[in-house]
Amino acid sequence: MRGRAPLSLDDCRCPVCLEIFMEPVTLPCKHTFCKSCFLETVNKATLCCPMCRKRVSTWARLNSRNNTLVNQELWKQIQTCFPLQCQRRLTGQEAEVDQAGTGTHTGRDIP
Ligand SMILES: [Zn+2]
Ligand SMILES: [Zn+2]
Fold first, then answer.
1. Which of 9, 44, 46, 75 has the most CB atoms less than 10 A away?
2. Residue 90, H or E segment
3. How many CB atoms lie within 10 A of CB 39?
4. How confident is the model at residue 40 (pLDDT cuts 50, 70, 90)?
5. What ligand has the least distance to the C-alpha of 48?
6. CA 102 to centroid of ligand 1, rounded, Å
7. How many CB atoms are located within 10 Å of the residue 26 CB?
């Protein structure tokens, strides 16, 4: 039986962009990157893992064709554990909260 340790944010950090994984792609060598980082680095680096230099060309071609690049199980866990971080990256928002300041203030004292 496998123990299910809860994910820590450090486990979900992409070694390329140092942000939380967006649509994580886990290579056969067990290194994981965001899909966009994977496409940026692995595709450009003659289809080798940027971490260990393992060739993943066959794997990458097969999985892009089948649309199975993304590690859906991990992606689901990340979205469950860190919904705020995901939202922020997906919408491209920063941490600041922007609230519409419509000051409708009815400060009337009726006795
Ligand atoms: Zn990344
Ligand atoms: Zn690797």
1. 75
2. helix 83-91
3. 15
4. confident
5. 2
6. 38
7. 17
Distance of CA 57 from the midpoint of ligand 2 (Å) = 12
**34 φ, ψ (degrees, to nearest 5):** -65, 155
Q: For residue 55, tell me if it sits in a domain.
A: yes
State the ligand closest to the CA atom of 24. Answer: 1
Give the tokens for residue 58: 């066959």
Q: What ligand has the least distance to the C-alpha of 40?
A: 1
70 in a domain, yes or no? yes
H or E stretch covering 24: strand 24-26
pLDDT at 29: 95
The answer to whether residue 96 sits within a structural domain is no
CA of 82 to the centre of ligand 2 (A): 25
Q: At 19, which CATH number?
A: 3.30.40.10
- Ligand with minimal distance to 50 CA: 2
Task: Count the domains in the chain.
Answer: 1
Mean residue pLDDT of the chain comes to: 83
